[in-house]
Write a structure and sequence with these properties.
6 helices; two-stranded antiparallel ribbon; 164 residues; elongated; Homing Intron 3 (I-Ppo) Encoded Endonuclease, Chain A; alpha+beta; 15% strand
């Protein structure tokens, strides 16, 4: 969006001077990715959604973006990220739905990034991660043990610290 488009939208929809300033700042707060997502760069909530300071309060960045581009969100409705990226603020990746519909859509994603069937904490991926971490830890322990056997005193300790 260009600055003129943003100003026109703000004047038509939001009116407030503070909101107008926030809308002007908004494009500098995200970066565009190859997937078309506008990735939020500023602070995020504990749940992973972008937060934006507007009109003396924190608002959800994706809701602000949607309202700026498409108009108000009716009470009882929520914004669904079609791209499934919580910190995406591209209004074309969002749709207004009921909370129930949003929850049903979220439950449809039942695989990890490797395609294993699981909602979260995929057991095969967790096992693979645990094995890799154990192998790294065991290698470090073996290396430290080998260094303690060879060498003596402070020189041995210095070698052990330097190699880890």
């Amino acid at each position: 969006m260009t600055t003129k488009e943003i100003e026109a939208l703000v004047q038509a929809r939001l009116g407030s001077f503070r909101v107008a300033r926030a809308a002007k700042r908004f494009p500098s707060c995200y970066s565009k990715s190859e997937t078309g997502c506008w990735i939020w760069l500023l602070s995020k909530s504990r749940l992973g959604y972008g937060q934006y300071w507007c009109n003396k309060k924190n608002v959800r960045a994706h809701r602000f973006s949607y309202e700026l581009a498409r108009g108000p969100i009716h009470p009882g409705m929520v914004v669904d990220h079609l791209c499934r990226v919580k910190h995406c603020v591209n209004p074309s990746h969002m749709e207004i739905v009921t909370n129930q519909e949003n929850l049903l859509r979220g439950k449809r994603v039942k695989s990890c990034v490797h395609g294993h069937r699981a909602i979260s904490h995929c057991p095969p991926c967790r096992r693979e991660y645990t094995r890799a971490r154990s192998a790294i830890s065991n290698a470090r322990k073996a290396k430290a043990k080998a260094l303690t056997i060879t060498g003596s005193g402070k020189a041995r300790q210095a070698k052990a610290k330097a190699s880890l």
